[in-house]
Amino acid sequence: MARKPAAKPKSEPAHCKIFVLDTNVLMHDPTSLYRFEEHDVYLPIMTLEELDNNKKGMSEIARNARQATRTLDEIVSSFENGIESGIPLDGPSKKLASGRLFLQTEAIAADLPAALPTAKYDNQILAVVIHLQRKHPRRPVILVSKDINMRIKARALGLEAQDYFNDKVLEDTDLLYTGMRQLPADFWDKHGQGMESWKQDGHTMYRVKGPLSSQMLVNEFLFIDGDPNFAAIVRNVAGKTAEFATLTDYSHPKNAVWGITARNREQNFALNLLMNPAVDFITLLGQAGTGKTLLTLAAGLTQVLETKLYAEIIMTRVTVPVGEDIGFLPGTEEEKMTPWMGALEDNLDVLNKTDEGAGDWGRAATMDLIRSRIKVKSLNFMRGRTFLNKYLIIDEAQNLTPKQMKTLITRAGPGTKVVCLGNIAQIDTPYLTEGSSGLTYVVDRFKGWDHSGHITLQRGERSRLADHAAEVL
What is the second-level CATH architecture of the domain 173-246? Predict the structure, then answer.
């Protein structure tokens, strides 16, 4: 009697990948479990162990670890059958993901080179990836980690490893919106036909039609290289018609802002945004020495003390030290923040010297008045607050995650202007890159909104020494 052939094992879909998540991915984005679409997600037991070790405290990482744990609890408790066969994610993710979540339910023998200690969490996660690769030879098994060394180690063992890209706004920050557009020299020849022009509030307005008009964004600055007299800001775009207005020339001493004049084209653009009460949200990017803080403070002081548009200036920044932390500082919140606010002090010194007619007594009195209208606040106590009629400056904003940035910007109440300053080439926070920084995120998301503006400052205006150092060092 012939033997009955054994049933063929059910083939797995070869196109569906298995993504093994490192702990830092969950701590960076607690919703990352739902970001892998139709592919399966696998969590090693060591990932859960590390989440447990990092859940205590008030840091952003601890908060994210707790959030990731709560998300996992919702997923696991919503599934009543055995979890060995995987938990479908389409229900818990509200159709965002259609893959399955696998948790490590068996002990896996560490099949690693002898030089790698198996007691280390990272190495145990690598052992899981090797095991899965052998168990599912037809499916790509990919380790996802924010840790560069972990990815290098995985590749050295012949494993596929990737960074977590879902939170990246841009792959290449060279493509980031600069807030300005250089028009071709023949712009007026191609767009001048049927052009309308009129005066409004002291500015010349233009309405033009043409192919370039549809590409323009509201509050984008326009200039023509070789024509220093033309600079404008886009006010409205509808189809192939664009309206733009000429700018106030802040490089002229008669338009000085708290004694400060624009030294280059980008600074002039920035002051046009900062002094415009219709613009509620401004982002200024630029290297050290391009004048971000100085211009922002000068515009803030003018609008708080002279035009009385805002009640006071609130300045805050991310307290990430460049070197070792200096430990607990004595004093009130304002006094604790003082060492972080050296940039504020330096710029106030410059602004206080702009009034040459005042003597030492006059300057001291002005300084006291300025200080009474500038409050320095820590980011740690921003949750739940509402700022009414304030001029809020967020310095070093490149060190904020998109979630932290959202928390801060949503503090703004009626009549408040928010200005974010930063240099995305100087990120000090672990796991944040130029592409995933909260500053990059808001620049990209706010472009084209009627009440927001952005400018990338390019020329350093500190000193010939600072400019040369930026080039050669």
Answer: Beta Barrel (2.40)
pTM comes to: 0.73
Q: Is 3 exposed, middle or buried (0-12, 13-18, 19+ CB in 10 A)?
A: exposed
Q: Which CATH code fits 18-162? A: 3.40.50.1010
| Per-residue pLDDT reduced to its tens digit, 36-65 | 888 899 998 888 888 888 888 777 788 888
Report the distance separating Cα 243 and Cα 205, nearest Å: 7
AA letter at 78: S
Residue 296 confidence class, pLDDT cut points 50, 70, 90: very high
- CATH code that applies to domain 274-322+330-472: 3.40.50.300
Distances (CA, A) of 226 to 168, 203, 230, 251, 293: 36, 22, 9, 18, 29
**Distance, CA of 213 to CA of 234 (rounded, Å):** 10
Over residues 310-361, the pLDDT tens digits come to 999 988 877 654 444 445 666 665 666 666 556 666 777 776 665 655 566 6
Residue 142's beta-bridge partner residues? Answer: 19, 160
**Neighbouring-strand partners of residue 203:** 200
**18-162 matches 274-322+330-472 in fold:** yes
Write down the domain spans for the chain: 18-162, 173-246, 274-322+330-472
Q: What pLDDT shows up at residue 141? A: 92
- What does each C-alpha distance from 440 to 12, 24, 172, 464 come to in angstroms? 40, 21, 11, 29
Is the pLDDT score of 465 beyond 90?
no
